Structure formats: C-alpha cells, structure tokens
Amino acid sequence: MNPPVLAVPAQLLPAREQMAFTLIFHIVFVPFGVALPTMMLIANYKGLRRNDSVALRLARRWSHAAGLLFAVGAASGTVLSFEMGLLWPGLTGRFGEVFGLPFAIEGLGFFLEAILVAVYIFGWRRMRPWTHFWLGLPIPFVALAGAFSIISANAWMNQPAGFELGPNGEITAVDPLSAIFNDALWYELLHFVLAAYMAAAFTLASIYVVGWLRGRRDRYHRLGILIPLTIGAVLTPIQFVVGDLAAVAVFEDQPAKFAAMEVVTTSGTDQPEVLYGIYDSATNTVRGGISIPGLDSLLAGNSVDTYVPGLDQYPDAKPSNVTIVHWAFDTMAGIGTVLLLLAFWFGVAYWRKRDVPGNRVFLWFAASAGVLTYIAVECGWIVTEVGRQPWIVYNIMRTEDAVTDTAAGTLWISFTVILLLYLSLAAGTIGVLRAMSRRWRASDRTEDEDAVYGPRPEVLR
Amino acid sequence: MSAATAVAAVMVLAITLYACTGLADHGAGIWDLTAGGRDRGRRPRSLIDNAITPVWEANHVWLIYLLVLCWTAFGSAFASIMTTLFVPLAFALLGIVLRAAGFAMSKDAARARVRHLAGWVFGVGSFLTPFWLGTAVGAVVTGRVPTGGWVTPTALLVGVLTVAIGAYVSAVYLLAEAHRTGMPDLIGYFRTRAYLAGGLGALLGVAAAIALRADEKQMYDRLLSRGWPLLIVSVLALTASFLLANGTRVWRLRLVSAAGVAALVWAWAVAQYPYLLPFSLTVSAGAAPAATLHWLLIWFVAALVLVIPALVLLFWLDQRGELHEESAKSLGQVVTDPKGVGHRGQ
C-alpha cells in the first residue's frame, strides 16, 4: 500500500517545523484552559461558603488571567485548525471523514467554554454571587470535553481505528464512534488531563511561592499557594501510576515508538534502561548515557525476561529523531519523579503544621515546579508526536504523503512570519499578565478590591 | 434532503452566523483603527471595546466550526481549497494572529505607546482577515478551486466587499450600542459610518456582480436565475436598515441588517447548489460516507440544544449590561447608570 521509501519532499521540513512550533506554543495555554477554571471555582466556592473575601479576590483574579490565556489559546488554536488543512491536506482530505468528528465536538466544547468564560469573567460586579458561581460551574466540565475530543483525535493518529481500507487504499466502512473511542484514547487522555492539572496547579502555586519567598507572607499568598499546591500534590502520585501504564500501553501498541523512547537498539530480552546518551542511526548504537541492566524489560513487562523489539526492526520506519524522543522521555519521567518528591514533602509538612512549609529548600523547589511541569508537558508532547514519525497515521500514512505541495520557499516564509508574530503575541501576553499583577499588588495596598461583588468602589472611578 | 445536503446547509448556516457576528467584530476593529488620535478616538474606542470584548470569542467560533465541518464532511474539497488557496488563507490566518496579538497587548493599559501599537496591529488584522477570507470565497465562486489562478477581479472585489459588509454591520450594531448605553453623540458618529460603509458596499456589490459576469458567466446566471428572490430580500433588508438607522428601534435595526447579510449569503449558496466546488465537484460527490454525515447531523442537533441557550444567555446578559464591569471606568465620567441595569447584586 505504501511504497517503501519515498523521496522526501522539500516542503516536509518547513511544514513540520511550523506545526511543531505552533503546537509547542499552543500547549502552553492548554493547561490553563483545562485546569485553571477548576481552581478558580474552588476559590470562589471557599470564598462564598466562608464569606472569605481573600479567597474571592483570588478567584476573581484567576478568572481574569484565565480569560486572557483562554483568548490567546483560542487564537493559536484557530491557527492550528487552519494548519491542519494548509500544511497537511493529505491527512484531512483523506481521513477527515474518519477522525473529524472529535474536532467537531471540540468546536462545541470550545464554544460553550468561550460563552461561559465570558459570562463568568465579566459577570463579577453585577450578578448575584451564587448565580455567578453556578454559571461558572460547567466550565471545567466543558473544558474536559474539549480535552477529550482533541486527545481522541491525536490518539486516533497513534492507534487508527473506525475504518477499513479497500484494495486501492480507499476508505470503506467508516465508523466514527470506533474512531473516537480508539485504543489509545484512555491512557493518552488520563495522562494528559493529569498533566494539564499538574502544570496549571504547580505554575499557579509557584507564582505565589515566589511572592512568599520575597516576604509577602499574608493570607492571600497562603491561599494562593495552598489551593493549587494541594491539587498538584494529590495528582502527582496518580500521574506516576498512569504514566507507567501509558508507557506499557505504548510498548504494546507502538513498539517502534517505545524503542525510540527507551533507545532500545537491538531486539531481545533483559534490556537495560539507558538514561540519556546519543543515538547514532548509522551504526544503531548509543554513545554515552547511564545504563541500568534489565530495568527496561522490567518496566515494560514486569520481568527481565520481557522481549523488547529494538530499533533494528524498523529500518525504514524508524522514528526520525530517536535522540530527541529519548531525551524528551527521560526528561519527562525525571521531572515526574522529582515532582513526586515535592508532593510527598508538601504532604508530610502540611499534615504536621497545617501551613505552607517554611523550609527554604522546599520553597525554592516549589517555586521552580511550574517551569518543571511545563518542560515535562512539552517533552511528553514531543514523545507522542516525534515518536510516531515517520507516520502521521500510525502504520497507515507517512507524514510526507500528507504534506501540502505548496512550494517549500512559501512555507519557510509563512513559518518565519508566524514565528515573529507569535513572539509578539507571547510578549503581549506576558506584558499583560505582569501589568495585571502590578495593578493587583497596588490595589492590595488600598484594600478596596475586597469588595469583589457589587459595583466598583467610587475611589477607582 | 440527503444527509450531504443537510450538512452543506449547516455549513451555510455557520457561514451566515460568522458573517453576521464575527465579521462585524472585524468591522469594529476597522472603526477602531480609523477612530483618529488618542483624544478624539477615546470614546468610540471605549464603546467598541466594551461592545466586542465579552462576545468576540463566541463570534469567532463559527469560523472554526466551518473548517472542522468542511474537513469532516467534505475532506477532498477541503484539501483542494487549502492547497489552491494557500496564500489567501495564510493571509487570513495572519490577520487572526495579529488581532489576537493586538488584543493581548491592548490590555496592558499602562503604556500609551504600546496601546497605540496594539490598536494598530488589531486594526490591520481586522482588515486582513475578512479581506482574504472574502477573496477565498470569491475564488471558490469563480470556480478557481482546484484549477488555480485564484487572482481574479471577482475574488479581490468579494474580498473588499466582505470588509465593507463587516464594517457596515458593525457600525449598525455600534450605533445600537450607543443608544443602549446612552451616548447620543456616538449615535450620529456611527450612523455616518454605517452610511459610508453601506454605500461603499452597495457599489462594491454591483462591481463584484459585473466582474463575476466576466469571470464566470455561468455562476452569474445562476445567481440571477435562482438567487434573485434572496437578492431582492437582501437589498430590501439592507435598504430598510439604512432607514431604521435614523430611528430608535435598535433591536429591529440589528435584526434587519443581519437578515440582509444572511440573505446575501443564502443567495450565493442557492446559486452554487448542488456544487461544492463550481463546477467540478457536487455536494453529493464530495461528501463523506453516510455514517460520518449522520453523526455530524446528530452532533449538530446536540450543539443546537447546548449552544443556543448558552448563546442566548450571553447576549441577554450582555444587553442587560451585566457583563460590563469596567464600563464606568473606561468610558470616563460621561456614563450615568445605564437604564437597562436592574439590580446590582450585593
């Protein structure tokens, strides 16, 4: 069905680079879209239940940050949906009818989220407090529906299902439901949602930890740390288990990807776990790195006797950048382990003192957790996407068969323009977030922001 | 009606709703761009900002719906459109990113220069997106997909026409907003702009029709022979909205102008049917298998049930003035308490 090796078209590289860059950018906003609403609603509930103006102030500010991040995420998401066609017409043109439905569901989720977020953010001053809260309550669920559908589409690319191929490669017997609920869906979704919640939680917490380290040790910062850090700490051990299950599932579903993740060169049992190291595709060997005997087989199949296929089995369908996949995987797993440590430390310390731990090492650790989780999220995405190469639809369609036939030069220009624009978008977003935080800190000194509900106090008009 | 036709109708509906809402947001961006210096432009800009900020994301989603519907239901047509019209669509995308960048930057009110630059970026984006989207539509209408050579007078004129339509509809909406928020000086301000954009739009419409006759006679004939009732409705509604712009019935004004735009979109749809890409691919020939189409229609019903109440809620709250928390601050001292506001929750 597929000719063994095709001449790689010149437009493949710029198309892949542009897609990779726009996705790396977009993924920054996803955890906030998925998880920040939950934290803001928890703070909102706490504030209303206990008549706690500090919690309400946090909820209100988080909602404004969520609104901005959601708006930028919406724009970069639009770019992605255009790029699905502009860069990969072979994929959407041929397989859109099979895996397009999840995107339609995502459109719906996104729509509802846009509406409800708008109502929630702009409704603080004028609505009745509980009405406002109840209108916000569906947001996390709608966001989950959106995550479900995008992950479903991505999982389908890893484990294509819901169709049959005729003798000439034509698509027959389409079953969109089996396409949506493909085999990779459950582990990709669980792993991703947990990662999104962790990234948003640790990032949010780390912002207030930095303030705490600078001596702003008030109730406002305490709550700002405790609400998200608790969520992050509870989810991290769960993620540890889910991540392991996902790796085992990838071992079974996509052995070539697993071989790249763990840089298994030669098939066999009793495979060592190699940490980092550089893969040389010409000789199919690994230079450097730390080798732990037998561990890889043990992790894949609970026994050192587990047979693990190596990269030697995939001479013309080898992931194109084994070292990148392998490093990304090791970095993700390493950060996950480090965060597990942080979670336990926080758990024990909080259980004993019922407060933010005072240890400075802990605080520095917590302050860097946000950046660490984000690196892990990006690495996880690299493992999934780069690890699937050269397939855009695993074992069915090669990436070079999906790429547009627009001239490579045009694509390099569009990539450059997108790159420059995104830089200004990023600068603008960071600028606004900083301006917001400066404004908030200034208003903390006047205390008038305590009146979260009701019209803005006269002094500010 | 076959499932393929039904899905095509849903797509036309999405285009219609985008033309009546999202396009108007772009029009507002153009009025923002041309509002003049910092002092002169402050009040119209505040009105524009307040009017579109809570709703623009919801209005924008129709475009994403359209893309997704197209690649799911009509994948091969989607691939040829995206390949043939790479350049105009890439430019439309550029506009979308510029708008987002402008939006993000403009919220940093601290520095006037940044704000100025942001407004400029936002305005340029607001021009680019409708122009290039319109050009893409014009190229499809003149049968240039997938044969290429999309640079036709018709395509470019439809592009400019799309900009004018957005500018007109947004001026009408903003004039209604000025009524609602009690800013009488801005009523006349936006009325003038509505007349300007509307007049220009009418000329461009005639020019586009003449160009179409030269570029693709068959489509022109179909537009007149099959689409004429809708064209008449469109012309009547838009003329009526011109007249209503003088009065105070703002809801009627908004609905009538939106109806005029909708009728224009439908006239195009009726003229093009049964072709997806005139005149090489029909709706039924380009459609996905029945299973996919049926699920898309089920999805559409579910979407109606979920989205319509939410959307009604959004616009209802918006029009009651419940979503304008910063208005008092950003509009200066001119605003008295808007009459539409009922309680103020404590």
Automatic annotation (TrEMBL), chain B:
| Protein location | Cell membrane
Keyword presence, Cell membrane: yes
Q: Per the record's keyword annotation, is Membrane included, yes or no?
A: yes
For this UniProt record, give its keywords in alphabetical order, as a comma-separated list.
Answer: Cell membrane, Membrane, Transmembrane, Transmembrane helix
Q: How does it sit in the membrane?
A: Multi-pass membrane protein
Chief localization: membrane
- For this UniProt entry, which segments traverse the membrane? 63-96, 117-142, 154-175, 195-214, 226-244, 256-276, 296-317
Question: InterPro entries, alphabetically?
Answer: Cyt-d_oxidase_su2
Q: Which residues form the signal peptide?
A: none
Q: Which family does the record assign?
A: Belongs to the cytochrome ubiquinol oxidase subunit 2 family.
Q: What is this protein called?
A: Cytochrome D ubiquinol oxidase subunit II
Source species of the chain = Actinoplanes ianthinogenes
